[in-house]
Task: inverse folding
């Protein structure tokens, strides 16, 4: 298990971490150190332990806030997936309904259409001739 030397509040600490997590641990220590430095400027003369506790609480608050945003985003993504599924189902139903309507319409044959027109024209021609 690797050990990493981190500097927090002007003190060196040797910390063990999992293999491959060294850079992450260094970045976390840098964030905590910056937080404590900011606190030291705000609370002049505060004991080191108080700064460390407040820094840890602030970092935990940020983590909790980020977790809440992630959970909210996951809920919104789930809701969007559900809406997308409903829209897909509605689209499929519409396509099926359109196909059913097309299939239900009688097929018009041109021969029948022209035969009907021919009959009507003959009837009109007889009326004109009779008049």
Result:
């Amino acid at each position: 298990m690797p050990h990493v030397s981190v500097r927090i509040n002007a003190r060196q600490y040797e910390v063990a971490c999992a293999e491959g997590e060294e850079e992450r641990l260094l970045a976390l220590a840098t964030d905590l150190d910056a937080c404590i430095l900011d606190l030291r400027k705000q609370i002049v003369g505060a004991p080191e332990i108080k700064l460390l506790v407040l820094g840890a609480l602030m970092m935990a608050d940020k983590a909790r806030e980020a977790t809440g945003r992630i959970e909210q985003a996951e809920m919104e993504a789930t809701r969007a997936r559900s809406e997308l599924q409903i829209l897909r189902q509605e689209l499929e139903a519409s396509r099926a309904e359109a196909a059913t309507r097309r299939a239900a319409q009688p097929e018009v044959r041109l021969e029948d259409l022209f035969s009907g027109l021919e009959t009507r024209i003959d009837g009109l021609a007889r009326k004109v001739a009779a008049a």
The radius of gyration is 40 Å.
